[in-house]
Amino acid sequence: MTNKQLQHYEIGMVGLGVMGRNLLLNMADHGYSVAGYDQDQAKVEALQKESTEQNIVGETNLIDFIALLSQPRTLMLLVPAGDPVDSVINDVLPYLNKGDLIIDAGNSYFKDTNLRTRNLAEQGIQFLGVGVSGGEQGARHGPCFMFGGPKQAYERVRPVFEAAAAKVNGDPCVAWLGNESAGHFVKMVHNGIEYAVMQLIAETYDLMKRGLGLNDDEMHDVYALWNKGELNGYLVEITSHIFSKQDDKTGRQLIDEILDVAKQKGTGMWTSQSAMELQVPIPNIDLAVAMRDLSVFAKEREQADAIYQLALPRFAGDRDTSLTQLGRALFAAIIITYAQGMALLAVASEQYQYHLDLEAVARIWRGGCIIRAVLLEDIVAAFHARPDLPNLLLDLNLSGKLMDHQEDLRQVVCQAAKSGVPTPGLMVSLGYFDAYRSIWLPANLIQAQRDYFGAHSYERNDASGTFHTEWDKE
Ligand code: 6PG
Questions:
Q1: pLDDT at 316 over 90
Q2: Distance (Å, rounded) from C-alpha 282 to C-alpha 425?
Q3: CATH value of 188-436 in 1.10.1040.10, 1.10.10.10, 3.40.50.2300, 3.40.50.920
């Protein structure tokens, strides 16, 4: 093994796909000696080709790879979520010693992380589940790391992750968030918010394209402008870039050559499922998942289009005013979306005993991750002022901002409803806002209906206990 020193490398990475390779290169840049393993020779070569440092090696042989790691070993996994994680764990386990640490850096389902943590602990192996956000560029130059698992195991590896993480005003975007699956749960909700914000931005695109008749260059300018103000954030920024990208093949704008079908790997759906289990309403995230699912029914949409043939009339009114209103409506809907995500985290924290510090969550989301946005400064401040805030809509500053923008959201939703441009994300944001701020909801009727047909009983305003009425008896 030329240039390879046994028991020398501080971090070992299993899985040299885009994320694994880039994270290793990032850590090596910060002076850490790292070893990567992949069965695929081409991936090992890709790692070595990009590494200019001495402190980085690749291996295709698992036993040789493990022998390279300094002890106690730190083994990081960046393999697809699900069975591949268990299969790698089973492969490496015979060669590990008590006190070694496995870090699962994939988008693993949080309940799997709980099981793995417990099973491995029984064998004396420490296990950390870390959510890594930021895509390829983030992994290479500074992602956001959301850790869960035994705190002392995190402390052991903290320096390398602090070095590799994105920084906001010098603060590394990494934190230990709680026991067991805390990190993976927070990453899952991060992705849920990501889905919902992407859906909202996509709806503004549709409104600009079909409602206002803007072309791609004009939309590039609008998103670029929005990114300079209160909407500043990674997803708005990349959207502006997307509208200026030309297709190598046709010479036209690439966006118009892309199929209108959006797939998913599952984290958004898990967020919705978990929220349902915990009985926390997160309709923007549910809707974003549903809209990706609906987009897949392209053939049926084609048939329905032929049946209904409803024209989409252009919006009336001044274009610049409409665009300003649209940006403000988007901002309101994004606040409402983060509020739903954070509310889910607040309940999960209690239910699953994560003891999450939501200020810390918002703080590390300010950099490196996909949902980083200037709005997170307000969210940090909200949880700083009140760590047990159940919902961001109750924060004084954010509620002020919402009050100031809600009329724009209302106008945009009305306009969209009249014209027939589908904006279910914006609509559901408004519906959630109006319901959440409502001192009375028609749920008394639902109680009455349940009692009518199913004798499920109901509660009264003027007395405690449960009551039942024979509704159809005179
Ligand atoms: C991130 C991303 C990343 C990835 C997800 C979502 O935070 O860097 O969320 O984890 O993009 O896999 O992908 P899907 O849209 O395919 O579910």
A1: no
A2: 11
A3: 1.10.1040.10
